[in-house]
Amino acid sequence: MIIAVVVVLVLVMAGVGTVLAMGFARSGNQAASDIKQLSSPSPAGSPSPVPSSSPTPAISTPSSASNAGLTVPLPDGWVVDSQDSESITLVSPSRTGSITIASGSSSPLQTAQQNKATVDAFFKEQFPDTKSCTGSKTTTGSLNGVAGISWELCFTLTSGAQSVPAAALLFVGSNPSGSVYYAMYMLTVASNMPAFSKECAPILKGIQWKLK
């Protein structure tokens, strides 16, 4: 149940990244399409033949992931779920949560506060019951040298006939001119966020932003 929900959360976060880079309307529609598609059962496929056993070559495990905008560490057990030129999404070893780190050009130019407003609008459109999580506060600060805003949103995530309370812990920032955005968002079921945010701590400490 939780794993299926996390798959949907990863799709939602892909939409958030596109929101910051390319504008609200386009990515909001794409995320809604992705969620609808995931909620529909896939037809059963034909069984594949079982290959004959053979020695498995040793595979080295990467210690980091990188793109044009950032480099992020990969602690043991974490895997890259998706990656493009601006964003990298990692899934935890237990597959109970995901973290996305993104950075790229902003068009139009946007401040950190405007980036936050864009993300809030995205969540409100996709999940009308979105609100600040109980006891959470919006704060200003920095993430590895980038000034920005942190806050937490709670909402109900539905996949097919199932629904679950979910939470997003978010950070957005911008460079002084507003031409570059920086973002980080953790996603998991609401009850798991305190533990998951601690699990993500080594990743947050190791983020290296490339764009200034």
Structural descriptors:
212 residues, alpha+beta, three-stranded antiparallel β-sheet, Protein Transport Mog1p, Chain A, 30% helix, 11 strands
Summarize the structure.
This protein has 212 residues and is an alpha+beta fold.
Mean pLDDT: 79
Q: Could you name the CATH topology? A: Protein Transport Mog1p, Chain A
Coarse structural class: alpha+beta
Shape: globular
Span from first to last CA?
40 Å
Query: Strand fraction band?
Result: 25-35%
| Secondary-structure element series | HHEEEEEHEEEEEHHE
Largest sheet: 8 strands, antiparallel
Number of helices: 5
Name the CATH architecture: 3-Layer(aba) Sandwich
Rg, nearest Å: 18 Å
| Helical proportion, percent range | 25-40%
**Count of domain modules:** 1
The strand count comes to 11
Low-confidence stretches: 22-48
CATH class membership: Alpha Beta
CATH superfamily: Mog1/PsbP, alpha/beta/alpha sandwich
Structure explained in plain terms:
There is one protein chain. With 212 residues, this protein is an alpha+beta fold. The chain has a single domain, classed as 3-Layer(aba) Sandwich (Protein Transport Mog1p, Chain A), CATH 3.40.1000. Helix content is 30%, strand content 34%. It has five helices and eleven strands, in the order H-H-E-E-E-E-E-H-E-E-E-E-E-H-H-E. The strands form two sheets. Strands 3, 4, 5, 6, 7, 8, 9 and 10 form an eight-stranded antiparallel β-sheet that branches. The longest helix is centred in the first third of the chain and has 21 residues. About 13% of the residues have low confidence.
